[in-house]
């Protein structure tokens, strides 16, 4: 994809996501800042903040679990190098703890793909598997939404016993629902 394609996809993705009833009524959304070739999320994060939504962003811990901090705009982000492999944009401010995600009404999840059953394929580090398990243990009823390109919605992805289906996937061309929250 060209840089213009990536920008156009980010705008379309934000528009589709903002139309979700779950996001229209959300007070707290746990999200992430896209990296590499992932669909862009900054336009969506800023639009949520403009609506008065409290946006939580992850900070990667040494054990691959996630801590959380508040997003207050692009200037609240710091580039953090994690080993030799990746740099992530993470919130600069106060850390709220790994359990802060349980306050979210909606959790926006990254992924490599999602299949026709709503099963999400992650990058393999287990960070979001821990988040989903934490939500389940807390009895949280957050809507789980994956943000992907259209080509990343596939027939089937590999599944592990600990994997949980998501409620919906948002792509630049639309929304596909798998189950109700």
TrEMBL record:
InterPro entries according to UniProt: FTHF_cligase, FTHF_cligase-like_sf, NagB/RpiA_transferase-like
Keywords (A to Z) from UniProt: ATP-binding, Magnesium, Metal-binding, Nucleotide-binding
Keyword ATP-binding: yes
Cofactor(s) needed for function: Mg(2+)
The protein's Enzyme Commission number: 6.3.3.2
Catalytic reaction equation(s): (6S)-5-formyl-5,6,7,8-tetrahydrofolate + ATP = (6R)-5,10-methenyltetrahydrofolate + ADP + phosphate
Family the entry assigns: Belongs to the 5-formyltetrahydrofolate cyclo-ligase family.
Protein name as catalogued: 5-formyltetrahydrofolate cyclo-ligase
Originating organism: Streptomyces shaanxiensis
